[in-house]
Design a protein that fits this description.
alpha/beta, 5 helices, 3 strands
Length: about 110
């Protein structure tokens, strides 16, 4: 009888411990230029992805700044991405580099920071 009682107490503690555990959602960061910046608007792609995922399992963040080129993202990487400890990073950049390279020759070659 004591064994059954002890087993019941042990199971009760296990159930309490399991239910009090908090599960941290996976953090996804969208990192980029103006396309990513607009992605967090009401009907933007970041917002639509966020709405389609279970918020208890995923935390979706946007880190886009209009006009940024590859070098700008390189400079922001620590603060806007790495310090937030993401599980997944989606990088969407390059349009400004191509455009600036062709128009004013100030863009960055795509492979410079690989």
């Amino acid at each position: 009888m004591k064994t059954i009682f002890r087993t019941g107490i042990l199971l009760s503690f296990c159930i309490i411990a399991l239910t009090s555990m908090t599960f941290k959602p996976k953090r996804i960061i969208f990192f980029g230029d103006s396309i990513t910046q607009q992605g967090v608007s009401k009907n933007g792609y970041v917002t639509l992805i966020k709405k389609s995922l279970d918020s208890t399992k995923y935390e979706v963040l946007g880190a886009g700044i209009g006009g940024n080129k590859i070098y700008d993202l390189y400079l922001r990487l620590e603060d806007d991405v790495l310090n937030k400890k993401p599980d997944l990073v989606v990088i969407y950049v390059g349009i400004n580099d191509v455009w600036h390279k062709q128009s004013s020759h100030t863009g960055t070659d795509y492979d410079k920071y690989l």
